[in-house]
Amino acid sequence: MAFEDEYFNANDRIFDEDLRLDLKNIGISHGIGDVAEGLKADIFLGASTVELGFFGRGKGSRSNPTGHTPESYGKDEREEMRQLAKINEVELSTHAAPDLGALSGFDGRSFSKEAAEQSIHEVKRAIEFAADVAEGGPVVVHTHEFPRPIYNVDEGEWYGEKAPGKFRQYEKEEETARHYLVDKKTGEVIQTVRNDEVIYRPLDNEGNIIWKEEGIGLKEFKHTETGDIELKPVPWKEYVEIQKKKGIVDEGKIAKEFYKEQNAVQIRQAEGQAREYEAQYDQAKELYERTHQEYVKFKQLKDAIFENPDRSEEEKEKKWAILKESFKFQNQPFLPAQVLDPMQYLGKEQDRLKKVMESGQQTALAAQSRIDEAKKRLENTVPIEEYGKEQSAHNLAQAALYAYEVEKKQDLDKPLWIAPENWTPELYGSHPKEMKELIVDARKEMEKELIKKEVDPEDAKRIANDHIKGTFDIGHLNFWKKYYEGSDEDFKKWAVQNVKTLFEEGILGNVHISDNFGFHDEHLRPGEGNAPIKEFLKELEKAGYKGKIIAEPGGQKQGQFHTPWTSALGMNASPIYRTDTTSRAWTDIQGSYFGRTQAPSYIVGDFAPSKDWTLWSQVPLE
């Protein structure tokens, strides 16, 4: 559908003379509702590339516009769609449910294995549909993996120069942002560290912060006038600078160290308590042993007195009374005020000391258990970025492996690949840098799994690169605009440079375009909002991008869902014929031939229109 320069209207400059993308690669998403009917409508429109997407999850509901799932369509309908696309030379791609959930499994409180598996199941449904109907191609999956601060995501470097603006989710985000920490054994978010928190550290006699107290005597700590050890509050910002000097620059890892410092105080308290009760136990044990010895001794003496047949009862009692007085005198420190029978007292004292020993032992063991648990928890604590990236990459690789197996099983002529798509700025995966990290890590995971299956390493790398490629949505990237503090022009430069880098580094494989005003995903037609779509497409053209570009509808009134596609076509330097005498620009193609297309070359099954013949003008014959 490209035309020569002699067809240009000299007064018509809606199109861009410098933009000359292959119009066959500019396609349209079928939108919301019945996928089969959407495909038919888009073919009637004249599109040569169509993306089929699903909004339903779980059990489908075809009576609901957003209830359609891949499994809503059986074998016969899938075959009809495949034949319809093939006969009309239309290429298809597939979009899994946008809200299928994070591939990482993050559910707001933890990384759930169950939630991750459900998300993967939704992707697998789309994969099987894509194999049956599209016979390969991309399966688009939104990435919205886990929360993290925005202010420190972007490196702020363009063309080697410092960026004039910065991203912030809210005013003074740097001062109150949260850093999430995860237990890597359970996947639970166990702690958040806020940027307005402080930790308290002791000082030495020179006024320097002491970071390790081991081996330091009490006299070496600086004391206040009241004799207490002097502590200095260390706020987050200062702590970050201290850690950066040690070589730790990642704020997630710094948050972990900060959390360790916070827990160190509790661990030291528990250790002190454990030592205290251990000392109590040792002291009670020593007293118990002395008491037991006394008990044995006096029992022997008492037995010797009362079992002597040569003494009278009077003599025995007199001798025992003298012995009791001797016991009281010798054991004054632990005798009660009243005079007790030594045997009775020593027996009760042994029982009391046993209880003290048991209490001290149990308390010391409990304290030690808390210490061990706290230390183990610290060992298992990792930044959410570290844990979440690992889960996302692993599960994305699993989805791609499944796609590769389906591709081989059905002997498809083209790769069936997973295409993670950038989504909302508030969650990991939306920044171009994060998209790159996710795809590179997932490819490495897939390579490892293929090598385990005895695939040659070079082949494994190639297969992974072919089966995990990003879908970049310029409309979604435009959401970052609401958090940008620089100029609109600088934001455009930032967006274009980042996308260019993705393509140059082999990350990009598919493109979505829609427009908005930088706040949310309204899916306006290109040119109606402020997303840098033209700049984006120009950069792709310069870089040599030859992949598909899908214009996504959604924000149009009834009957105008085709306009995002026609607007995308109209951005190119290729005006389109018009078919009536209405005064329109040559490139206002939504009102020309492409808005009035008749039946495609051939259609089958239920997709075939009425066979009643009419004039092209639709004027009744009578």
Structural key phrases:
single chain; alpha/beta; three-stranded antiparallel sheet; 15 strands; 11% strand
**Unreliable spans:** 1-15, 577-587, 589-599
Helix and strand sequence: EHEHEHEEEHEEEEHHHHEHEHHEHHEHEH
3D shape: elongated
Residue fraction in strands = 5-15%
Rounded radius of gyration (Å): 38 Å
- The side-by-side strand order for the widest beta sheet comes to 12-4-3-2-1-15-14-13
Mean pLDDT: 85
| Strand element count | 15
- Proportion in helices: 40-55%
The number of helical runs is 15
Taking the sheet with the most strands, its summary is:
8 strands, parallel
- Terminal Cα span: 37 Å
Structural class: alpha/beta
What is shown here, in short?
Helices cover 44% and strands 11% of the residues.
Describe it.
With 622 residues, the protein is of the alpha/beta class. Helices cover 44% and strands 11% of the residues. The protein has 15 helices and 15 strands. An 8-stranded parallel beta sheet has the order 12-4-3-2-1-15-14-13. It has a 3-stranded antiparallel beta sheet with strand order 8-7-11. Helix 1 packs parallel to helix 2 (75-87) and helix 13 (488-504) runs parallel beside helix 14 (533-543). The longest helix has 56 residues, at 251-306. It starts with 25 loop residues before the first strand and ends in a 52-residue tail after the last helix. Mean pLDDT is 85; it is low at 1-15, 577-587 and 589-599.
